[in-house]
Amino acid sequence: MADASQLAFYALPGHVESAAPLRAEVSDGAALGLGAVLLSERLNVKESAALCGYAAALAGPDMEVVAGLTFPHTRHPMDLAAYGGTMAHLAEGGFTLGIGRGVNHNWDTWGMPRPGMAMLEDVASVLRRLWTGESVVDHDGPLGRFPGTLSLGVELPHQPRLALGALGPKTQALAGRVYDDLLMHSHWTPEGTRRSVERVRRAAEEAGRDPASVRVWAMLVTACEVPEEVVLQKVVRRMTTYMQWPGYGELIVDANGWDLAVLDRLRTHPLLDGRMADVTAFTTDELLQIRDIYPDEWLRDGAAIGSAAECAAMAQRLLDAGADRVVLHGSAPAQVQSLVQAFTTS
């Protein structure tokens, strides 16, 4: 029988106007026995450290708290290390600090550098040294130049895990070589997931690490037992958001072996001319037109749609493909009760 702790949930997904629903979402997730809560960061009302600290106070000993994701360069390394060190004490069920590149458009708009592979590797090295009690002296690397001495000056009860959010094959391989966990992106099919898992395990082995020690988290956009108009909002609109972002869409399509011509048709559709899906209020008719651009298998194999049994089976397919955890994305815990019940009784 499957265990609900193999499932996690993504709290406050996407663009939100308030962080207040977090209390109910974490409480509901704990009641369902879900094994982890993931919290993304948007620099508005979703500041990662505040969300994770609040979630830790609610989660209890059986729920891991995962920052999924924050960024390597928006905080001084001492600030980022202190964030992880504090959470190592507060999160009874464990804490994982997830790092990612973010969206290039934001960095360009804010006048900040785009994080690259070297920076992602450097930040992991600096954090681990600080968390093990080492002093980092006159650091000068891809993360930046920090003259002087960096040191937490305390002994942590245990180190936080480090996760890397990665879409492309090179970044996924970096997760296998350097990080403790890989946080995958939404809309990976089971076959795409299998290839990513194999890539990460292979990279870990080549780096002399235990491949099984690197956890892989699959992200599953979920619309379970809901009307069609809700599926359009939760799945079609969300998928379209990712497909519109330069670079993101190409990586998702390539990972799944899908047809790039479909992506081109989507991006050039008149309904999306000058309109980004994540901040546009589409009518149901407009979303139906967008949905019709997608082949059925993109929606069927890249999300969990339908009955509780069908959605639970989709989560199991990702686990069977090698994922260690499946993160239910786009639906609050209160909206996936039937899915969790079907998953644990299948």
TrEMBL record:
GO molecular function, one term: oxidoreductase activity, acting on paired donors, with incorporation or reduction of molecular oxygen
InterPro entries noted in UniProt: F420-G6PD/mer, F420_OxRdatse_MSMEG2249_pred, Luciferase-like_dom, Luciferase-like_sf
Top-level division of the source organism's lineage: Bacteria
Claim: Chloroplast is one of the keywords in the record: no
Keywords recorded for this protein, A-Z: Oxidoreductase
Pfam families to which the protein is assigned, alphabetical: Bac_luciferase
SUPFAM superfamilies (UniProt xref): Bacterial luciferase-like
The Luciferase-like domain, residue ranges: 30-324
Membrane-spanning residues: none
NCBIfam families membership: F420_MSMEG_2249 (TIGR03857)
Protein name, entry field: Luciferase-like domain-containing protein
Origin species: Paraconexibacter sp. AEG42_29
